[in-house]
Amino acid sequence: MKDAILILNSGSSSIKFGLYDGDHASLPLIGHGQIEGIGSTPRLYAEDRHNAPIIDKSLEEGCSHGQAMAALVEWGRTREAARDITAVGHRVVHGGNLFSGPVRVDERVLGELDKLNPLAPLHQPHNLAGIRSLAALEPDLIQVACFDTAFHCQLPKVAKQFALPPRLYEDGVRRYGFHGLSYEYMAEILPSIIGERTAAGRVVVAHLGNGASMCALKEGRSIATTMGFTALDGLPMGTRCGNLDPGVVLYLQSEWGMSSAEVAELLYHQSGLLGMSGISNDMRELLASDAQSAKEAIALYVYRINRELGALTAILGGLDAFVFTAGIGEHAAPIRARVCELASWAGIRLDEKANEAHGPRITTEDSAVPVWVVPTDEEWMIARHTQAIVHQAH
Ligand SMILES: Nc1ncnc2c1ncn2[C@@H]1O[C@H](COP(=O)(O)OP(=O)(O)O)[C@@H](O)[C@H]1O
Ligand SMILES: CC(=O)OP(=O)(O)O
Ligand SMILES: [Mg+2]
Fold first, then answer.
1. Most buried in the list 250, 251, 257, 301, measured by CB within 10 Å?
2. Which residues bind Mg(2+) (predicted)?
3. ipTM of the modeled complex
4. Would the annotation count 179 as a binding residue?
């Protein structure tokens, strides 16, 4: 029977998945898709590697993450009846300071990862619930956790430190950084797209999805990143505030009498693009809106990206390439145009037509720094790690 590897990527608004042919080192894609609307009106959608739809089906109203996962495995088996799912690789957002690489999950590992739930409340509990519900369905299945934080674990100490007493650092209160599977994929794919010499230089990648962060890559390694201890820091996001004076939190608690749960709800769910605009966390809706609040939300979003670009360029000591990726980075040409306009200080000159066509290169020949649009593929990166662990296990 042929082997397949199922990959699950639980983002803050969806479960994305991929089914890969585990018999080949290059891991060809069999099918991929997502379940959207978990908690409201869930829908399972998948297409094959040529983007032809395979399934488009509504799931039970209000179904849980676990039930959605079970529906997915059922689909994988029905569709690929001649295939055995040998392993499931999961995106797990937080690995803390214990996990610096992919790991096969067992009860001990799950126990350690549970402790990190408060550090990634939008993601970690869903990631772990998925692993647990699959373990209950299929106890012998190899399940592998691949961490968003792992790619950043070699950050220089100064980039990880907060200006707090050292005992807090020792206790794990430090910058971890996220979206590491996306940045790892970029480090791997960029030489073939932007050229080996440029990719081996100083590159800033902006991962702009529902969550958003930026990373400074030097010689393909992360040396600085905008997210921190949690996935709240850095850029404003769909519903998260990004960088914020910690004095605001103290003020809300002491003067407004807000509990920590209420502050968490505000900062994780009611801030960012949604909070500022009062309209939506979806950039498509904001770009289509005439409301002043939508315009202000977009203005702050691009302002903050430009500001972080400056900071990361300073850390890198210069800039050889700038790359946009993830939902907004790959699809929102007006946002890229606004960022590039603000980044004229770096000698960036936008090629409008190329930008409208989504690149891959979106700057003119005389731009001092080339800017690229490169689709990310966190799932494929997870599949690679999972395959390596499966090989170790045999
Ligand atoms: N054509 C588009 N124009 C503008 N924004 C888009 C477009 N397509 C997708 N997006 C944005 O991308 C976001 C989702 O990005 P994605 O990387 O899939 O997020 P996540 O993995 O965090 O769920 C959506 O919320 C939406 O704002
Ligand atoms: C870490 C994070 O913010 O992930 P996502 O963008 O998938 O929400
Ligand atoms: Mg994502």
1. 301
2. 9, 378
3. 0.98
4. no
